[in-house]
Amino acid sequence: MHRLTYTSSTGRVVELDAAGAYVGTAPKLRSREWSYELSWRSAYGVSRDAREATVDAYLSPEAADALREQADRDMAGSSPGRLTFDGEWYQRAYLAKSDVSEVYGRRGIKTELTFLLLDGAWRREVTTGFYANEVSDGSALDYPHDFDYDYGGSGANRTITVGGLVPADCRLTIYGPVANPRVTVAQGEFSNTYSAKVAVPGGSRLVIDGSSYPKGIQLIGTYGEVEDRFADGVRGEGAGSGSYCFEPLRPGTSTVSWDGSFGFDITHYQEEGEPPWS
After folding, report:
1. Dist CA 273 CA 137 (whole Å)
2. CB 3.0-4.6 Å disulfide test: which of 4, 39, 147, 274 passes with 32?
3. Residue 130, pLDDT above cutoff 90
4. Neighbours of 15 (CB within 10 A)
5. Quick one: pLDDT at residue 154?
6. Bigger pLDDT: 168 or 24?
């Protein structure tokens, strides 16, 4: 059993496998389930929907109070928390019910916790950094006077690898200064360019987030000020068009290319129906 934590929407972390808290193997939480409809020799409407899962827990008074306070605040405010296995695999969740079966005086309680697993799958974040001036061949040309446009090498070129078997949602964090940044990810015959018509000042960052609910684009300033730039993302003709700024990454290894003038991170989200056992 990996260690389990509940992180509230406010960022407070409650350990569920530590001193004062024990949830055992939590088999129902570790299980997986597809939703579907059956028809003649086939199934349709296949999806991973939100579901309930119960966990038997032994909690000290302090752990029980901390969990109750954070979970009730999240539920009442419609702001889900996050269940995390071993600091890696997580899922948005509410703690909807605690059904106490035994009270051990002032030492603690035994209870059945009912979690609402909202994403239907477990995720883990994998971040790959790409740095400014990572030109691949160093062949930029320098002339004694300026032209209306720059002559240069082929730009920066690296790879990113996505595990699992299904496309992975991703988030690009682009660091200024840069105007109208463009990043192209290619695999086989398919390539997609992630871009936005935004000037990103030095010290600021542009976040193009195809993993959030809903998707979003934000310009975040030096002091944390946030500007909504959703309308400035380039969407082409939608997913699969080759210029969709929220395009998921395909499984396997892809080539990443850009002009090398700015740095950025790509965070992708590998999904599994249950946290891996190995």
Report:
1. 42
2. 274
3. yes
4. 15
5. 47
6. 168
The Cα-based distances of 249 to 80, 196, 222 in angstroms read 26, 18, 29
**What residue ranges in 48-188 does DSSP mark as E strands?**
51-59, 81-85, 89-103, 109-117, 122-130, 156-162, 170-175, 178-179, 182-187
Tokens representing 225 are: 């000020």
- Distance of alpha carbon 181 from alpha carbon 203, whole angstroms: 15
Closest CA to 171 of 133, 116, 218: 218
Look at strands 109-117 and 89-103 and give their pairing.
antiparallel
pLDDT tens sequence across 219-233? 999 999 999 999 999
- The residue whose two tokens read 């038997």 is 56
**Residue 110 and residue 113: Cα distance in Å, rounded?**
10
Give the three-state DSSP class for 113.
strand
* Token pair 């463009």 in the structure block, residue: 182
- Cα–Cα distance for residue pair 195/53, rounded to 1 Å: 40
31: Cβ contacts below 8 Å, ≥ 6 apart:
53, 274
Q: Which two tokens stand for residue 198?
A: 């935004």
Pick the closest to residue 248 from 174, 176, 187 (CA basis).
187
Q: What band does 271 get if pLDDT is binned at 50, 70 and 90? A: confident
pLDDT band at residue 156, thresholds of 50, 70 and 90?
low
Q: Which two tokens stand for residue 115?
A: 């979690």
| pLDDT value, residue 276 | 83
pLDDT of 16 higher than 70: yes
Q: Which of these, 25, 86, 82, 30, lies nearest to 53 by C-alpha position? A: 30
How big is the chain, counted in residues? 278
Amino acid code (one letter) for 53: A
